[in-house]
Design goal:
Layout: E1 8-14, E2 22-27, E3 35-44, H1 47-54, E4 65-66, E5 71-78, E6 90-93, E7 96-98, H2 104-107, E8 118-119, E9 131-135, E10 140-141, H3 148-151, H4 157-168, E11 175-179, H5 184-195, E12 199-204, H6 207-216, E13 221-224, H7 231-237, E14 247-250, H8 256-264, E15 270-273, H9 286-291, E16 295-298, H10 304-315, E17 323-327, H11 331-340, E18 346-350
Parallel strand pairs: 11-12, 11-14, 12-13, 14-15, 15-16, 17-18
Antiparallel strand pairs: 1-2, 1-4, 3-5, 3-9, 3-18, 5-6, 6-10, 7-8
């Protein structure tokens, strides 16, 4: 069962490492037996997409490639084996496009760690196109009353930081520091943390981000790392007892904050690493880490259960992703702004423009 689907579509294609992306027409793919075809209406732009263009990570992307992994749209075709997704359903295409569903990781709710995972906009074509293929078992089910442009950033940034907050073990009433609080992931992390009953210290730089993090997103404190004379002392001073936050979420895009976090997190606190700056390393003083019983852990994207929960927060009005809309044809402008560090919140692409 299908709708009226064109043979060609507009897409942004990475043809060579380092870019720029090329806006061009490409064929519309047909779904396999266990897949759906989603007419992407809107797609968020994540810093991971820029990493894919630049070839920053040890695992090279598959080129040529359509990037993007925060696509929200409407199901217009499905394979013969798909029974629980209907034509006309609203669906989201996430970073995890598909997995084997048979390995130990898939069977225990850690399907993002599947050795055979398909990654949207990295190993398979993603959401910077008008029609996108995804495994039916892995698409996010979006309620029809939810605006597709507003929910797009939740499909990666929201789910990822929500999982990271769960991994931190922070409990209601405790304090979490969010490094990169004014960016796409950070702005959502502030809101999920508040919705989970946590107190937030935002760490970022610039008046625009300070106003957003404290004024709009409700953080109790903001530390500007560029103007602070001592970031470690200022973060600790922002907590009630002056000993530092119970948890730190690192969603920054450069390396230096990754070295500082273990110095200001409180004893028995947890540092959760989410951001993946190019060629970055973690470094922590062994004595203080051991004697302070501090935990450092990585947190990857969320699983299917995390997706349902993160979307439920959004549906209940607890999460409002700060975003600006721009046409799909203007994606390179967004990448240029990312390079310059000038984005507060998220950019969302309208695939009709």
């Amino acid at each position: 069962m299908t709708q009226n689907i064109p043979d060609k579509q507009w897409a942004q294609v990475i043809e060579k490492t380092g870019g720029p992306v090329v806006y061009k027409q490409i064929p519309v793919a047909k779904p396999g037996p266990d897949e759906v075809l989603v007419n992407i209406k809107y797609s968020g732009v994540c810093h991971t997409d820029l990493h894919a263009v630049n070839g920053d990570w040890p695992i090279p992307p598959t080129l040529p490639l359509v990037g993007g992994h925060e696509g929200a749209g409407v199901v217009v075709a499905r394979g013969d084996l798909v029974k629980d997704v209907e034509i006309g359903d609203h669906a989201g295409v996430k970073w995890l496009n598909g997995s084997c569903l048979a390995c130990e990781f898939c069977q225990t709710g850690d399907e993002p760690l599947c050795p055979k995972a398909f990654l949207s906009g990295y190993t398979v074509d993603g959401t910077f196109q008008q029609y996108c293929i995804a495994k039916a078992m892995h698409v996010a089910r979006i309620p029809k009353e939810v605006p597709l442009d507003a929910v797009a950033p939740v499909l990666c940034a929201g789910i990822t930081v929500y999982r990271g907050l769960k991994e931190s073990g922070a409990r209601p009433g405790q304090t979490v520091a969010i490094v990169g609080a004014g960016g796409g992931l950070g702005s959502l992390a502030c809101q999920y943390a508040k919705a989970m009953g946590l107190q937030v210290i935002g760490i970022d730089t610039g008046d625009e981000k300070k106003e957003m993090v404290k004024g709009q997103l409700g953080a109790k404190a903001f530390v500007d790392f560029a103007t602070s004379q001592n970031v470690i002392k200022d973060v600790q001073a922002a907590t009630e007892d002056g000993t530092g936050p119970h948890a730190v979420l690192l969603v920054a895009v450069n390396e230096k904050p990754f070295q500082q976090a273990t110095e200001y997190v409180r004893r028995k606190g947890t540092v959760v690493v989410i951001g993946v700056p190019a060629n970055a390393f973690l470094k922590a003083p062994v004595f203080e880490t051991v004697c302070g019983m501090k935990t450092i852990k990585g947190s990857y994207v969320g699983n299917r259960k995390d997706t349902i929960e993160a979307l439920d927060f959004f549906k209940r009005g607890l999460i409002k992703a700060p975003f600006k809309t721009i046409g799909l044809s203007e994606l390179q402008k967004v990448y240029d702004l990312m390079h310059e560090g000038k984005i507060a919140g998220r950019y969302v692409l309208d695939t009709r423009k």
